[in-house]
């Protein structure tokens, strides 16, 4: 795809791993300068090294997406480095599995803080920077199929937070349509990233049970396999590119057909 992103600046949160790292590599391959933002600074620097090894341009900024001042500083660092902000990908997140009666108040607040407030803050500071420049921009929020349907049991806090991301996306798309700021959302299904590895770590020790569980996870998506982080990243690059100039307020599953069932 020629995403026409040469010379553009993109900030990606949660870019030290998984989908965020794949986004950093995909945007850089299209010629964009990438602000790699993550709470894990060393791993963020590793992403920058991977981008540079592939001939791209990027810088790392440590920020916790639940802290407004840190997100604002990360956006400002990208604007300072390149003089512009064309796109923001609010991807940082964490999964949490527990029924409501076994979820502490602190765990609920943490899940909502990272998955929803983190997206809110990314949108807030990116939109402020885009408005200040007056040339529009594109935002992609990473929700989940869990934001559309209660696909998996035992995730009420995560599902509630991701549902909030979906509605926030629509609200901002409407509010900023005339500013030339497009706001879209992708809803991944099951993606082969360290987040899934963490889930696998809690699986049964018994090799046969483990193999069966892994086989089952591949079968969750109708395409018969997990998605790759790069599959989600290419969709996000498209949504941030001028190729999608009339696409705003869209909630796009990247889920191998999961929610089509
Ligand atoms: P991952 O665990 O590989 O990467 C998440 C990144 O976010 C990590 O680098 C982590 O350090 C960072 N992060 C976590 N909390 C943070 C905070 N407070 N501030 C800054 N950075 C923080 O996860 P993955 O799979 O790449 O997930 C990315 C997004 O995709 C998440 O929002 C997740 O909910 C969503 N998603 C993932 C799916 C999957 O199957 N892997 C499916 C559906 C949605």
SSE diagram, text form:
Layout: E1 9-13, H1 18-29, E2 33-38, H2 41-53, E3 57-62, H3 68-82, E4 87-90, H4 105-133, E5 137-142, H5 156-175, E6 181-188, E7 191-192, H6 194-201, H7 207-218, E8 227-228, H8 229-240, E9 251-254
Helix pairs in contact: 1-2, 1-8, 3-4, 4-5
The structure holds 1,4-dihydronicotinamide adenine dinucleotide.
1,4-dihydronicotinamide adenine dinucleotide (NAI) is lined by residues 13-14, 16-20, 38-40, 64-66, 91-95, 114, 118, 142, 144, 188, 190-191, 193-196.
Question: What attributes characterize this protein structure?
Answer:
261 residues; alpha/beta; seven-stranded parallel sheet; two-stranded parallel ribbon; 46% helix; binds 1,4-dihydronicotinamide adenine dinucleotide
Give a short synopsis of this structure.
The chain is of the alpha/beta class. Helix content is 46%, strand content 16%. The protein has helices at 18-29, 41-53, 68-82, 105-133, 156-175, 194-201, 207-218, 229-240, and strands spanning 9-13, 33-38, 57-62, 87-90, 137-142, 181-188, 191-192, 227-228, 251-254.
């Amino acid at each position: 795809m020629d995403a026409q992103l040469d010379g553009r600046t993109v900030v990606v949160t949660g870019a030290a791993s998984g989908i965020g790292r794949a986004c950093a590599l995909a945007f850089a391959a299209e010629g964009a300068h990438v602000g790699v933002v993550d709470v894990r600074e060393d791993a963020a620097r590793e992403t920058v090294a991977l981008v540079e090894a592939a001939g791209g341009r990027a810088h790392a900024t440590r920020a916790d997406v639940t802290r407004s001042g840190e997100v604002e500083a990360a956006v400002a660092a990208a604007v300072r480095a390149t003089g512009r902000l064309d796109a923001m990908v609010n991807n940082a997140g964490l999964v949490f599995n527990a029924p409501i009666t076994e979820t502490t108040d602190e765990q609920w607040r943490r899940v909502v803080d990272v998955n929803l407030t983190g997206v809110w803050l990314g949108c807030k500071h990116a939109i402020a920077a885009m408005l200040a420049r007056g040339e529009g921009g594109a935002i992609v929020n990473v929700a989940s199929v869990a934001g559309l349907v209660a696909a998996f049991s035992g995730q009420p806090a995560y599902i509630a937070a991701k549902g909030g991301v979906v509605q926030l996306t629509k609200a901002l798309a409407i509010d900023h349509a005339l500013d030339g700021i497009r706001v879209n959302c992708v809803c991944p299904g099951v993606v082969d990233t360290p987040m899934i590895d963490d889930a696998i770590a809690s699986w049964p020790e018994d090799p046969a049970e483990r193999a069966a569980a892994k086989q089952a996870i591949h079968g969750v998506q109708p395409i018969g396999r997990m998605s790759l982080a790069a599959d989600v990243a290419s969709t996000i690059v498209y949504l941030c590119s001028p190729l999608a100039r009339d696409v705003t307020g869209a909630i796009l599953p990247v889920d191998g057909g999961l929610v089509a069932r």
